[in-house]
TrEMBL record:
The keyword Hydrolase applies. This is Arginase family protein. Belongs to the arginase family. The keyword Metal-binding applies. InterPro entries: Ureohydrolase (IPR006035), Ureohydrolase_dom_sf (IPR023696). Keywords: Hydrolase, Metal-binding. It comes from the Bacteria.
Length: 368
């Protein structure tokens, strides 16, 4: 193993933790975490050691590498997406047991933090002492900062592999996509982002915070070769018309009502026609579960009616995957302890089923 790879693994032993442990708790969800650990490692004791040993398999593992980021500090409407990584993983293991994916673990999340740039030196030192027992460490401490730094190193060491990120609120897609786009440019590849969402996420800031669930897209546009390489599907909750977003930012949008009125095949052909002359090599798919109609996905912070049907989203992903390699993806905003329909566990189970099916589809495409 090269010295740089060894350094990467030593760093993630500090900045990450075993799958499912990204939410630090005492007893809450203990049984669910233990069930996940047993499924992954065959036991519930000495998990850290088994997780560390698993790193030896990463160089020869499949292309799809899973990373959980159990943070909802960048949300702000209805919290609870920090439980997404644990529940989505469990759903994938239960409903897609033959799925091929290497699980890198979870980002270690201090739940009060978002990005290191918002912290003063005293707070950075205190948090480094808490996370790493070393106030003089140079490692980041906030979930967005840890994710971005980890993935810059990951893509340098494993350029042929891709990350499937599980959130968490949608602010997490900022470091996921930024590191991805920087890596692809370094590899001489042109990448586009297909963004499924009920909302545009194109604010400059929200209540003074520039990196959050409502603004992350704005801050990765300069990392694309062209702004229209961000293609948004499922938009329907916006205080401004489609023309405002497309004219102001140069992105391309396909609103949910267009899918419903004109049919998903028409939208697929429009996306293909747009991408055809752009010399796109690879795609990243960022999926906010609220792109799906709340009838099928209500366990989320901002469920919206009149959205996409799960099959429509699947058809779009499959059609694009026939032409372009999908080399990165994420599933965001699953909040399994919430439900806006009053159907309780039935609605949560349906949301997780839909998220699991879509996640499995994207992971399978990444492995191709």
């Amino acid at each position: 193993m090269t010295s740089s790879k060894q350094e990467f693994f030593e760093n993630i032993k500090q900045t990450l933790c075993p799958p499912g442990n990204g939410v630090f708790t005492v007893n809450t969800a203990k049984e669910r975490k233990e069930a996940l650990h047993y499924s992954l490692f065959g036991q519930t004791k000495n998990i850290d050691a088994l997780w560390h040993q698993s790193f030896e398999k990463l160089p020869s593992a499949c292309n799809a590498v899973m990373l959980g980021i159990a943070s909802d500090c960048g949300g702000g409407i209805l919290r609870g997406a920090n439980w997404g990584p644990l529940f989505v993983r469990s759903t994938l293991l239960e409903q897609h047991p033959n799925l091929s994916v290497f699980d890198l673990g979870d980002v270690r999340v201090i739940p009060h933090l978002l990005h290191d740039k918002y912290l003063n030196e005293a707070t950075l030192s205190n948090c480094r002492r808490a996370l790493y027992q070393n106030e003089n460490s140079t490692l980041p401490v906030s979930p967005l900062s840890i994710t971005e730094e980890t993935l810059h190193d990951f893509y340098r060491e494993f350029p042929e592999k891709g990350i499937f990120g599980i959130g968490g609120d949608h602010s997490i897609s900022y470091p996921l996509t930024k590191a991805y786009l920087v890596a692809k440019k370094a590899q001489g590849k042109r990448a586009a982002i297909i963004h499924f969402d009920a909302h545009t996420d194109l604010l400059h800031e929200r209540l003074g915070i520039d990196l959050c669930f409502g603004s992350w897209c704005t801050h990765i546009l300069d990392d694309l070769h062209a702004p229209n390489h961000l293609i948004q599907v499922g938009i329907r909750s916006s205080g401004k018309p489609k023309s405002h977003w497309e004219d102001t930012f140069g992105v391309k949008q396909h609103w949910a009502h267009e899918v419903r009125e004109e049919g998903v095949n028409v939208i697929i052909e429009r996306i293909k026609a747009q991408l055809a002359p752009e010399s796109i090599d690879e795609l990243y798919v960022s999926f906010d579960i609220d792109a799906i109609d709340q009838e099928f996905a209500s366990a989320t912070g901002t469920p919206e009616p009149d959205g996409l049907y799960p099959q429509e989203a699947e058809e779009i992903i499959k059609a694009l995957a026939e032409i372009y390699l999908i080399t990165g993806a994420d599933m965001m905003e699953i909040a399994p302890f919430t439900d806006s329909t009053g159907r309780g566990q039935e609605a949560v189970a349906k949301t997780l089923e839909v998220a699991g099916n879509l996640s499995a589809l994207m992971i399978n495409e990444m492995n191709k």
